[in-house]
Amino acid sequence: MYDDIGGKIMFQAKLSLWIGITISLIVGSIIMSEDELVKLGVAVMILGCILSYNHFALCYAMGRLVQNSDIIASPYRKTQKEQQKRSVQSELNNDDNSTGVGKCQICNKENVKLYNIQLKDGYGTRYRNLCADCVKQYDGVIVPPSK
Known about the structure:
By secondary structure, the protein is of the alpha+beta class. It is built from three helices and four strands, in the order H-H-E-E-E-H-E. The protein folds into two domains: 5-81; 96-142, no CATH class.
């Protein structure tokens, strides 16, 4: 649903262009069927097509802008995730962040060093005591133990 938003905006712009042109031509021809309103029918056709194209141009440009922004931002997102992984690894190496030894709440390993992790998911923010392997697997924030 959230993939290729720029492409979806551009597709919708093209679709609205053709729908707008079609409607303006149909309405214009209906108005032209009256003998006295021929000039008005032609004006509706021409102005409808021009307004449809203006709407198309603005929406299409917005779609291109969103698409290009995604292209520009993608290397930064990758770099940010790599930095986050390195940060988690350095926090795991720091023994001060361990909450003790016990049972992991995800994989159920016994007698392992545990870390209190803040997990954000569809259910909200939860805190779990996880082993080092599970910390690496899930995107969470290590919460240092209070002293």
